[in-house]
Specification:
The complex is a heterodimer of chains A (324) and B (372). Chain A contains 12 helices and 12 strands. With 324 residues, chain A is an alpha/beta fold. Chain A folds into 2 domains: 133 residues, 3-Layer(aba) Sandwich (Oxidized Rhodanese, domain 1); 116 residues, 3-Layer(aba) Sandwich (Oxidized Rhodanese, domain 1). In chain A, helix 6 crosses helix 11. The longest helix of chain A is centred in the N-terminal third of the chain and has 28 residues. Chain B has one domain. Chain B is built from 15 helices and no strands. The chains are: A alpha/beta (324), B mainly alpha (372). Chains A and B meet through helix 1 and helix 10 of A and helix 1, helix 10, helix 11, helix 12 and helix 13 of B.
Chain lengths: 324, 372
């Protein structure tokens, strides 16, 4: 293919010509290798996919087996929501005591889930208005309660709308369920444990899910920056597995191995909302993230040590090139 | 690093074997009315665009970066770049592959190019860049592309534009000679197809390295010069290694074809190359890209900014070639007694279609006679 179209006799090639053709083949193979690796890497799936692509939602809704939860504010919910979706809002999951947005006691969470018709045997789909954080927070709460199958609608309602999906104002009829929690404390880490681990120097890597500017103003000692907003593309959908892996690598996080148990990581933000989005991203990469739910708000309130340093060069901010 | 490097080597190899230089393309078009290299360019763009739009339309593998539309910067920068590359005797890609061939004039142009990208981007001319880079049509949901402007899906616009153009090029291929009259190496059809394929694979390889853009030259040159002056390793990316590979690949191809040789143009020409390089760097950084970043890769994503810049480059190159080569060529031909009556229609600045390329003005493109 790459051989020049000059009519050249097969025999009587000079040594240089032979060498040139060999090099030509080598260069071509290198090119194909580079492109081939790119294709392979970019189409790599998540280690544990927890996303529901909008086109698949239609079939799921027709089947009617999944419980769909709407994590937007009640007012937005009432103006139009997915068919048979039940509203579970921020205030149903959290309490504001001393510090903002602390996870509500388990019995209150269970009560909320029972009223929403959530059961262990039914898969759950959560969604929000495309922000990602609200739905991710709800997903994390359900993970904490031990629900085995929760997925997030990728891109939220805007993505659903761009695939021609419609909304309804019809309130769903929900049969309360007997939801029994199987709490998984391993998705959570409390102030005392984290502080003790940091002081002892055996804490897992700590990830700050806030913006680079917030990070620069003060963060947990030794924290690495992985802004929640960097996990979503311009269309509000999660970046691909490969891109997410690169972001995690940039933040200096350990790679997930093929073992069932991924390496442990601690994630926090100001109140835990953005941390939940990063939690979801890291879970999909095969890591075992634990959310420090109190976040920096509680850390400051309880007098934890604060470190001030800039994120390492280029980290966290989108590399907007000034030329191509 | 390996990803970018291997694509770069292939790119450099193909550039050298195909003698792919947009500046030569214009010079040929103006001076000897030969559109072979222009066709190569068009074919490479079309192949890359069709491949990319099909790939993204079918799989949505990644989200391509789209250069924004900065009307003032694109137009002015593109024009300056076009004039600069005629003076320097090579466009961005042409200059790079000639550096691999051992042309010291091109090396000087490349150094001037790099210096000016940093001067404009991080030096005293930064205010100018900021002032001229007023975006148009950004801030809306979609990037400033032709499909967004037309409100049609990208793949449809890509196919609608690309297929007829591809047909026209192939039709022309059937009737044209394979190479530019003076040229040796690959026939243009092969060069165009291979460059298009490299452009396409570059997108994929680069995206896998976290850089959602294809081949480019201005960005990587800037990254090297900024890296060497600031020491921030975060500036080096896929493109930087691609550029190194490009020069290495061009050297390898030239060496193995017996075309690599250190050559220094006459003093005046050397100075002209440096001046042209400075002007190219100024224009390319201002416009946000050169004939590769905009005129090759940016066109594949149908960026409006790239379309405008490319048009400005064409205008600048055309103006400068006509002034420089038109006048010079005429004098040369007069000296040789080959002057013929000007053709009545069109091409006022190019009154004569010479039967042979005046070798004197082609010191930068002709290759040494093999075995001589």
């Amino acid at each position: 293919m790459l051989i020049p179209a000059m009519p050249t006799p097969t025999k009587g090639l000079t040594r240089r010509e032979l060498l040139r053709r060999a090099a030509e083949v080598g260069v071509f193979l290198g090119l194909l290798g580079s492109g081939g690796y790119g294709l392979w890497a970019l189409s790599r799936p998540y280690a544990r996919d927890r996303l529901l692509p909008p086109p698949e939602l239609r079939g799921l809704l027709e089947e009617g087996t999944a419980r769909v939860l709407d994590a937007r504010p009640p007012l937005a919910y009432r103006r139009g929501h997915l068919p048979r979706a039940v509203n579970v809002w921020d205030l149903d999951l959290h309490v504001w005591e001393d510090v903002p947005r602390r996870l509500a006691p388990v019995d209150r969470l269970v009560e909320t889930m029972r009223r929403a018709g959530v059961g262990h045997e039914r898969p759950v789909v959560v969604y929000d208005g495309g922000e990602g954080v609200w739905a991710a927070r709800l997903l994390w709460v359900l993970d904490y309660l031990g629900h085995p199958d929760v997925r997030l609608l990728d891109g939220g309602l805007p993505a659903w709308a761009s695939h021609g999906g419609g909304l309804t104002e019809e309130p769903p009829r929900v049969e309360p369920t007997a939801f029994e929690p199987r709490p998984r404390p391993e998705v959570l880490i409390a102030f005392d444990e984290l502080r003790a681990a940091l002081e002892a120097g055996d804490a897992p890597p700590v990830v700050d899910a806030r913006t680079p500017a917030e990070f620069a103003e003060g963060h947990l000692p030794g924290a690495r920056l992985l802004p929640a907003e960097a996990l979503l593309g311009a269309d509000g959908r999660f970046r691909g597995a490969h891109e997410l892996t690169l972001k995690a690598k940039e933040a200096g996080l350990p790679r997930a191995s093929l073992k069932a148990e991924g390496p442990e990581v601690v994630v926090y933000s100001r109140t835990g909302l953005r941390a939940s989005l990063v939690y979801l991203g890291l879970v999909m990469l095969g890591l075992a993230p634990r959310v420090y739910d109190g976040g920096l708000a509680e850390w400051r309130h309880l007098g934890g040590p604060i470190e001030r340093s800039l994120p390492s060069p280029g980290q966290g901010e989108e590399h907007r090139s000034t030329c191509w | 690093m390996l990803l970018g490097g291997s694509v770069g080597v292939a790119f450099g190899w193909a550039l050298q074997r195909g003698r792919f230089c947009v500046n030569s393309a214009f010079r040929d078009a103006v001076l000897i009315r030969d559109g072979t290299l222009l066709s190569t360019w068009a074919l490479a763009v079309v192949v890359q665009m069709l491949g990319l739009q099909a790939l993204l339309g079918l799989t949505g593998l990644f989200e391509p970066d789209v250069p924004p539309l900065w009307p003032a910067a694109n137009a002015l920068g593109g024009f300056a770049f076009g004039v600069g590359m005629v003076l320097a005797g090579g466009c961005a890609s042409g200059t790079c592959y000639r550096v691999g061939e051992g042309m010291l004039g091109s090396l000087l142009a490349l150094l001037g190019f790099g210096l000016m990208t940093v001067v404009v981007d991080a030096g005293p001319l930064r205010p100018l860049q900021d002032a001229l880079r007023t975006p148009l049509l950004t801030g809306t949901e979609q990037a400033a592309t032709l499909p967004a402007l037309l409100g049609a899906p990208a793949w449809a616009v890509g196919l609608g534009l690309g297929l007829p153009l591809l047909g026209a090029l192939l039709w022309q291929a059937a009737r044209s000679r394979g190479r530019a009259p003076y040229q040796r190496g690959w026939p243009w059809l092969l060069t165009g197809l291979v460059l298009g394929l490299i452009g396409l694979l570059a997108w994929v390889s680069s995206a896998a390295a976290g850089r959602a853009y294809g081949l480019s030259i201005t960005g990587p040159i800037r990254s090297w010069f900024l890296y060497l002056t600031t020491g921030d390793p975060g500036l080096l990316d896929w493109g930087s290694w691609m550029l190194l590979g490009l020069i290495g690949g061009a050297f390898l191809a030239a060496r193995l074809s017996g075309e690599a040789k250190l050559r220094l143009p006459p003093p005046a020409r050397t100075l002209q190359a440096l001046g042209g390089g400075l002007l190219m760097g100024f224009g390319a950084q201002l416009a946000g890209g050169c004939n590769i970043g905009h005129g090759f890769t940016g066109l594949a994503v149908l960026s409006l900014g790239s379309l405008l810049t490319t048009a400005a480059i064409v205008l600048g190159a055309w103006t400068a070639s006509a002034l420089l080569f038109g006048g010079v060529g005429e004098r040369l031909r007069a000296l040789r007694g080959r002057f013929r009556a000007p053709e009545p229609e069109g091409a006022a600045r190019v009154p004569v279609q010479p039967t042979q390329v005046p070798m004197e003005i082609q010191t930068q493109t002709t290759t040494p006679k093999e075995g001589s």
